[in-house]
Amino acid sequence: MTGKKQKDYLADLLADDDAGKTGTASSAQTPSSAPASQSPRPARGSGMTLLGRESALARVASGEVSQVTRLKLDPARVRIWPGNARIQARLNEENVRDLIDAILAEGGQKMPAIVRRVPDDPAYDYEVIAGTRRHFAISWLRANSYPEMTLLAEARDLDDEAAFRLADIENRARQDVSETERARNYAAALKDHYGGKQRRMAERLKLSEGWLSKMLKVATLPDRILAAFPDLGELTLNPAYKLSQALADDKRRKTILSEADRIANDNAQRSGDGQTQFGGTAILNRLLASGETESVKPDLFAGLSRHDRPALSVTSTNRQGLTIKVHAASGADEDEMVALFRAALAKHEYRPDAEKPGNE
Fold this sequence. Notes:
The strands form two sheets. The protein has a five-stranded mixed beta sheet with strand order 1-5-3-4-2. A three-stranded antiparallel beta sheet has the order 6-7-8, with helices on one face. The protein has four domains: 68-173, Conserved hypothetical protein from pyrococcus furiosus pfu- 392566-001, ParB domain, CATH 3.90.1530.10; 178-219; 232-294, no CATH class; 302-355. α6 runs antiparallel to α7 (179-193), α7 crosses α9 (209-218) and α9 (209-218) packs across α11. It starts with 5 loop residues before the first helix and ends in a 13-residue tail after the last helix. It has helices at 6-13, 15-29, 45-62, 93-105, 132-143, 160-172, 179-193, 198-205, 209-218, 223-226, 237-247, 250-272, 280-289, 292-295, 334-347; strands at 69-73, 78-80, 113-117, 126-130, 151-155, 302-304, 310-318, 321-326. By secondary structure, it is an alpha/beta fold.
């Protein structure tokens, strides 16, 4: 394990001061060549260089300038931080093959992983904050004919919330971290780092509160649903949100989950037979169609807002009356809701006074 020594780091930081000092010596050797009006360079002398060094050291000590230490680590001594977004069980040689090949072609890992020191686990020295695919690739190479490979990493001093924000920034730029994985990561972070306060979390991450709310809804998708998708990257935010809404319907939930189990089994069998597995679009359509017939009755009323979003619906009718559901985030104003309510009553010819005894 090697790292950049502190004295080398400070030498780089103070390079300008050393260059100035060299320039002073050069000017002193040829005083006759300097214009008479020019101030003598020795005025900047060793006193200014000393002040520059003291200033630079103060900046390091205050944290204004931080040292970044690059290390070459045995990946077996590096664990994965539990706050990482990626579902580690889904990493395998096939979906990391592009990175493995790139490392071999380039003669080693070029982009370092971000790690932090582990103080309380004798089995590990560091944990990966960002770079779990790099960790997997190097581990795989060491186990498959390249034992000399080491994990290139940068060590950072981070608390959990700062580690989460750093990992999130990196994950936003990477398409190989699915939105469902990020959604689950956000849900865990909301509880662990932000006390359940969505607004505070949105402000810290520079996200819109509405978008964050949508991600947190997607985080409710159960494992049985995710298991139906061989590639979670195919389950993007909007379809995942629609699926999470469908699962909120108790009448459909059991049927959708059963269909997800069937799809997972079908895909496992197709994979074993060497056939192509079902793709994300086909899987999503099967899941959304599940239980639709059972939950929708011909005489139910579904009222949309001017934004074409569900606003008010009749979920059941009987002799005792109507059950009406008012949908959130429809964008409908009060006048629209009143109009939809009246339309629902008219459709079902419901008259409250007709139900009272003595009015038959």
